[in-house]
């Protein structure tokens, strides 16, 4: 056990982040673990950040870098909305993120997923990985936990899902990633954005489905030991 | 306790130089582009993959784009740098159009612009991490050129980037000839792309073939190639040599 745990290591969000479109809008999902080396600095972080009323961003990688980029883009979008006189489009938000990510590619270490709804294009998801490439996709995954989800999504993703199907897919996926990625954990947060508005949901760790080799949580061993013995059979 | 720098590997900038920017390594990359001249113009092929290291992460990336009226640009290497190059070219073409003088930049001019762009970035130790293929037709003249990330540029009857240099160019040297028909050109490109699919780890089986002629640019819809695995030696590798690895 390493007693010299590097608690001064830069805060990094190991993370699992997901963005998925459905017929009518988008669902964004993320875990809630922020780690500093091996220590979990925050077990209930909010990684899905608001940029405007209708556009949110999922953050992964360096906590500081992703927070700064989000703050700048929120600021730019605020001004842009005033000048434009109407809500900013998801594409504009995504391009602003890209601009910062690309032009500072040597210094930033953050992968972002921009998702939202606007009246021109409906629900859209944009992935902006390290380096500042901008890719519009029907769904995208990011963060260290995403490695465990490529196969899952290849199999489980379908075009034209309903809102509930999409959200359940996202929750299941983040939960699976948390099961295998040490850098992801905590709760699953989702944000659903459509023409009607924004809905934030919260799925605490103990309410998620159990996967392979996981056991039902108990209050104490004593409850198990003191459990009543099975009834004798009556033949 | 030591405060370690967050991501930079050992060979990165030392302290005082950290203001100046330099791309040291690509993140999301595209693999080979192959192109050849045929009877009516240029044919170019590229797959739709964007790799993230060894992960085949993005499978719907268009790596060939029309430029103005007369040119077609294909790129391998860092996709974000390719997207930036497209923005530069957009500005260039817009500026050219605003003259409204009946003239328009042809493929030779665009190729020259790209060469200067790539070479000057190389001189500042901040390259755009791409290998580009620029093809086009203007006033009946076919043009096919290439520029690398260090500014090496040349034109030829057939070009390729990345793995294509090693696997596709030998095939093209053998089988290319003047005045290929469209069908023969496509078949030749597909032969090259199939070999790349077999032998390039970062290739994916989803490609587009683009054509540029005097009339304009057409980029095909994405499609996949059939592959052959029925060699008996594939099914039974140890048949003639029992105990072989």
TrEMBL record, chain A:
The active site is at residue 15. InterPro entries: Ntn_hydrolases_N, Pept_T1A_subB, Proteasome_bsu_CS, Proteasome_sua/b, Proteasome_suB-type. GO terms for biological process: proteolysis involved in protein catabolic process. Keywords: Cytoplasm, Hydrolase, Nucleus, Protease, Proteasome, Threonine protease, Zymogen. GO terms for cellular component: cytoplasm; nucleus; proteasome core complex, beta-subunit complex. Pfam families: Proteasome. Transmembrane segments: none annotated. CDD domains: proteasome_beta_type_6. SUPFAM superfamilies: N-terminal nucleophile aminohydrolases (Ntn hydrolases) (SSF56235). One of its GO terms (molecular function) is threonine-type endopeptidase activity. It catalyses: Cleavage of peptide bonds with very broad specificity. It is found in: Cytoplasm; Nucleus. The proteasome is a multicatalytic proteinase complex which is characterized by its ability to cleave peptides with Arg, Phe, Tyr, Leu, and Glu adjacent to the leaving group at neutral or slightly basic pH. The proteasome has an ATP-dependent proteolytic activity. Component of the proteasome, a multicatalytic proteinase complex which is characterized by its ability to cleave peptides with Arg, Phe, Tyr, Leu, and Glu adjacent to the leaving group at neutral or slightly basic pH. The proteasome has an ATP-dependent proteolytic activity. Belongs to the peptidase T1B family. Component of the 20S core complex of the 26S proteasome. The 26S proteasome is composed of a core protease (CP), known as the 20S proteasome, capped at one or both ends by the 19S regulatory particle (RP/PA700). The 20S proteasome core is composed of 28 subunits that are arranged in four stacked rings, resulting in a barrel-shaped structure. The two end rings are each formed by seven alpha subunits, and the two central rings are each formed by seven beta subunits. The catalytic chamber with the active sites is on the inside of the barrel. Component of the proteasome complex. This is Proteasome subunit beta. The lineage of its organism: Eukaryota, Viridiplantae, Streptophyta, Embryophyta, Tracheophyta.
Automatic annotation (TrEMBL), chain B:
InterPro entries: Ntn_hydrolases_N (IPR029055), Proteasome_alpha (IPR050115), Proteasome_beta4 (IPR016295), Proteasome_bsu_CS (IPR016050), Proteasome_sua/b (IPR001353), Proteasome_suB-type (IPR023333). One of its GO terms (biological process) is proteolysis involved in protein catabolic process. GO terms for cellular component: cytoplasm; nucleus; proteasome core complex, beta-subunit complex. It is found in: Cytoplasm; Nucleus. Keywords: Cytoplasm, Nucleus, Proteasome. Its main location: cytoplasm. Component of the 20S core complex of the 26S proteasome. The 26S proteasome is composed of a core protease (CP), known as the 20S proteasome, capped at one or both ends by the 19S regulatory particle (RP/PA700). The 20S proteasome core is composed of 28 subunits that are arranged in four stacked rings, resulting in a barrel-shaped structure. The two end rings are each formed by seven alpha subunits, and the two central rings are each formed by seven beta subunits. The catalytic chamber with the active sites is on the inside of the barrel. Non-catalytic component of the proteasome. Belongs to the peptidase T1B family. This is Proteasome subunit beta. It comes from Hibiscus trionum.
């Amino acid at each position: 056990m390493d007693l010299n745990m590097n608690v001064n290591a830069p805060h990094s969000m190991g993370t699992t982040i997901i963005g998925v479109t459905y017929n009518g809008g988008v669902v964004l999902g993320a875990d809630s673990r922020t780690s500093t080396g091996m220590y979990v600095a925050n077990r209930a972080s909010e990684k899905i950040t608001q940029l405007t009323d209708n556009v949110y961003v999922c953050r992964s990688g360096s906590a500081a870098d992703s927070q700064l980029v989000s703050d700048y883009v929120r600021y730019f979008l605020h001004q842009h909305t005033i000048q434009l006189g109407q809500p900013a489009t998801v594409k504009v938000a995504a391009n602003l993120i890209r601009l910062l990510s690309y032009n500072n590619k040597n210094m930033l270490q953050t992968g972002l997923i921009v998702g939202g709804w606007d009246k021109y294009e409906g629900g859209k998801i944009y992935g902006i990985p390290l380096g500042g490439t901008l890719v519009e996709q029907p769904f995208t995954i990011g963060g260290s936990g995403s490695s465990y989800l490529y196969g899952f999504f290849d199999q489980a993703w379908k075009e034209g899902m309903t809102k509930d199907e999409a959200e359940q897919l996202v929750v299941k996926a983040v939960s699976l990633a948390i099961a295998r990625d040490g850098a992801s954990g905590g709760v699953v947060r989702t944000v659903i954005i459509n023409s009607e508005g924004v809905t934030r949901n919260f799925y605490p760790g103990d309410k998620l489905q159990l996967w392979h080799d996981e056991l039902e949580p108990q209050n104490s061993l004593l409850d198990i030991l003191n459990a009543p013995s099975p009834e004798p059979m009556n033949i | 306790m030591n405060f370690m720098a967050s991501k930079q590997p050992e060979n990165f900038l030392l302290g005082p130089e950290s203001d100046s920017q330099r791309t040291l390594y690509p993140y999301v990359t595209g693999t080979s582009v192959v192109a050849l001249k045929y009877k009516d113009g240029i044919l170019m092929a590229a797959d739709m993959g964007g790799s993230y290291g060894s992960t085949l992460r993005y499978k719907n990336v268009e790596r060939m784009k029309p430029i103005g009226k007369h040119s077609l640009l294909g790129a391998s290497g860092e996709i974000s740098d390719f997207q930036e190059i497209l923005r530069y070219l957009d500005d260039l073409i817009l500026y050219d159009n605003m003259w409204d003088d009946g003239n328009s930049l042809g493929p030779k001019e665009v190729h020259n612009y790209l060469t200067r762009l790539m070479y000057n970035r190389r001189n500042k130790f901040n390259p755009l991490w791409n290998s580009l293929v620029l093809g086009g037709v203007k006033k009946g003249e076919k043009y096919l050129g290439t520029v690398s990330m260090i500014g090496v540029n040349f034109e030829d009857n057939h070009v390729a980037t990345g793995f294509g240099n090693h696997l596709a160019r030998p095939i093209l040297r053998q089988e290319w000839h003047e005045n290929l028909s469209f069908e023969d050109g496509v078949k030749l490109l597909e032969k090259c792309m199939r070999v790349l699919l077999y032998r390039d780890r970062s290739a994916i089986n989803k490609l587009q073939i683009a054509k540029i002629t005097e009339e304009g640019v057409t980029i095909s819809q994405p499609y996949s190639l059939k592959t052959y695995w029925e060699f008996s030696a594939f099914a039974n590798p140890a048949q003639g040599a029992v105990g072989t690895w």
